[in-house]
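Justification of resources, computational component.

The compute hours requested in this renewal are based largely on the per-chain cost of generating structure records like the one below. Each record pairs the submitted sequence with a full structure-token output. That output is archived, and it is also reused by downstream analysis tasks.
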Amino acid sequence: MRLCVLISGSGSNLQALINAIQSNELAAEIVLVVSNRQAAYGLERAKQAGIPTLYFPYKKSQDRHQYDADLAEKIRTYQVDLVVLAGWMHILSPAFLDIFPHQVINLHPALPGTFLGTHAIERAYEAFHAGEITESGCMVHYAIPEVDMGSVIQQATVPIFPEDTLADFEARMHTTEHQTLVAAVQQLIEEQTKKAAR
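The structure output for this chain reads:
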């Protein structure tokens, strides 16, 4: 399976995919890593693994739909099977999503229907201390125009303990995110293999 991974930050989820591919856990190849932030360390991780990279910034003066369409066109030339949003901090419009129908997945650090959008980990931590929740979690879902609302591929719960600092909870969340993302890609590879065998 040919993957394109979109990142905006450190790329630890990208690294989890790279590691799973290098250890033959995933029958996949990352053919492109895209970042909308030049300083994203994920670009360095990709270069170290010999993966082509693309820095593609969104400028405030740009039309969002045109940006999405241009980005989709650049990615399409790599003939990708799956686009993985792994810490990608830009909401993609139908101008992008329609080019890759049912081929764009997103990792979100919350359970379905909870803490949609940004700062989900911090908001869950605060909700726990306000007595509103007893645990949180993460999910990988199909990306649709409604943020964090697409059908779920994999999900996992992540406990929060009373003695946790935010950093403790974040670390536990990130470990679970890495496992859940790899599991979701593995599931989609298996589904693609079954379809091809029919």
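The longest strand covers residues 135-142. Strands lie at 2-7, 29-35, 53-55, 82-85, 104-108, 135-142, 152-159.
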